[in-house]
Amino acid sequence: MENLSDRDGWIWQNGKLVPWREAKVHVLTHTLHYGVGVFEGVRAYDTPRGPCIFRLDEHTRRLFDSAHILDLEIPFTPAEVSAAQREVFAANELKEGYLRPMVYLGAEAMGLRAKGLSVNLVVAAWPWPNYMDPESREVGIRVRTSSYTRHHVNITMCKAKSNGNYINSILALHEALDSGCDEALMLDNEGYVSEGTGENVFVVRDGVVHTPELTSCLAGITRDTVLTLARDEGLTVEERRITRDEVYIADEAFFTGTAAEVLPIRELDGRRIGTGARGPITERLQSVYFDQVRGQRNTYPEWLTPVGGG
Ligand code: PPE
Question: What is the separation, in whole angstroms, between the first and last Cα of the chain?
């Protein structure tokens, strides 16, 4: 098995590039014990202008928003954090890949009462192909509704992409994987559809594209991208509460996320969705999404930040 800690390359840690294998923390690192930290998942794609980071400033902004929600003060400016991502991506000489900025509290003190701990930032970048096999992008995945409820907005707040929130996601995802599915669908505490364990969710019915409101899911950047591109394609989009059985009777359904990209759902809880194959609107949105991130369209050039130069 590949060991992600044993690679050549560079990791940006607190302002400087350190050799990949030396980017370490102490075992008493506060975030390791209690999960109070925040992170981002960002992708860069190869484009005709060279490797470009997709919606870099929006990801950086969400990192700062997440930190603010958890009352963590990042000791860098947003411009410095965006520059760090470009720098580490370039240093690793990648064409396409995934970036993982993460903010964590230091090991100065233990305990829930600890205040005034150092706020640290790392950014790693490595090639990370979509975790579904390429076939899934065409045929779609099988999903089950999780027995675990998505965080209530006043338990751990879903607008923060915080480390601890992913305990909930991992419990739900592993339950789904153990039962032979590919992903879990999370319902909120009122029983309405919220999101996947690391993706936002969309359904299509009678040509209209629907996705849950932002109150109980992460403000996904891919979600926003797909909503924008769908409107540009002349589709009607609605952000509203969605029930589990509405997904069963949808014509099409798909997940969106930086890591997952645009991923068709062909089945939920053993019920076929639509024809049980990738639907035409999903296929169209998937295609415009990949063209957009790979710089094959002239639209939204500001979403693509070249890694090198300028
Ligand atoms: N909801 C959750 C819970 C989530 O984790 C993500 C991203 C999204 C929605 C979609 O957000 P966006 O990437 O901005 O479109 N999940 C990240 C981590 C995935 C992982 O496996 O780790 C990601 O996609 O990078």
Answer: 39
Q: Which two tokens stand for residue 107?
A: 């090991």
CA 196 to ligand 1 centroid distance, Å: 9
70 close to 94: Cβ distance less than 8 angstroms:
no
For this structure, is 115 an active site residue?
A: no
Nearest CA to ligand 1 atom 11: 220
Centre a 10 Å sphere on the Cβ of residue 70 and count the other Cβ atoms it contains.
18
| The two structure tokens encoding residue 171 | 């419990």
Instruction: Evaluate: CB of 261 within 6 angstroms of ligand 1.
Output: no
243 vs 195: CA distance, rounded Å: 12
**What pLDDT digit, counting tens, does each position of 161-177 carry?**
999 999 999 999 999 99
At which residue do the structure tokens 């209530």 appear?
A: 152
Question: Counting atoms of ligand 1 from 1, which one is nearest the CA of 43?
Answer: 25
Residue 309 clears pLDDT 70, i.e. is over it: no
